[in-house]
Amino acid sequence: MSKEENKAVIRRLIEEVYNGDDLDLLDELVAPDVVNHTAVAEHRRGIEGFGHVVGWSRSAMDAHYEIESMIAEGDMVACRITMSGVHRGEVAGLPPTGKRFSVEHVHWHRLASGKLAEPKERAWSAPSNARRGSPGDPAPANVRRRRANRSPPAGWR
């Protein structure tokens, strides 16, 4: 597939599956043996596990993904994405806060035969998320707990 065709697959996945909650498209857009490296072990492999993670992110965080930029090379598509939502369910041991959050991510997608075969992502810290302990906060749980027990720096208020 061409770079533009690969980008179109990922754009559909983000807009129609992640944001539109259309899990019926998974068979069309995701390889049956997909490996999702950021998922917990029990949901890391296969379309069913991938769909579970998408559904969980919608229910626990009311997540919405905005594509800021997208580039492709060979069978890889990289996206800079802003994920925003409301923290409605437990995330990484953090109980629901009901607070809004927004965090930037970089997603790398490897495609095979026109379908997503291997997604990887990395969120980077933003003070607005770190001070609230939002689900977009990439810090380990023990660091978030320490932060919760102290006042944020003056510039973060």
Structure description:
It is a single chain. It contains five helices and four strands; from the N terminus they run αααββββαα. By secondary structure, the chain is α+β, with helices and mostly antiparallel strands. The protein has one domain (3-150): Nuclear Transport Factor 2, Chain: A (Roll). Strands 1-2-3-4 form a four-stranded antiparallel β-sheet. A hairpin with a 2-residue loop joins strand 1 (64-73) and strand 2 (76-86). The radius of gyration is 16 Å and the shape is globular. The N and C termini lie far apart (48 Å). The relative contact order is 0.16.
Helix content: 25-40%
Strand arrangement within the widest β-sheet reads: 1-2-3-4
Envelope shape: globular
Q: Give unreliable regions as ranges.
A: 125-132, 149-157
Which sequence of SSEs, written as H and E, runs from N to C? HHHEEEEHH
Question: How would you state the average pLDDT, rounded?
Answer: 82
Q: How large, in whole angstroms, is the Cα Rg?
A: 16 Å
Q: Which CATH C-level class is it?
A: Alpha Beta
User: Which architecture per CATH?
Assistant: Roll
- The helix tally amounts to 5
Largest sheet: 4 strands, antiparallel
The total tally of domains equals 1
Oligomer state of the chains in this structure: single chain
Estimate the strand proportion.
Answer: 25-35%
**Strand segment count:** 4
**Secondary-structure content class:** alpha+beta
Instruction: Tell me the span between the first and last alpha carbons.
Output: 48 Å
| CATH structural fold name | Nuclear Transport Factor 2, Chain: A
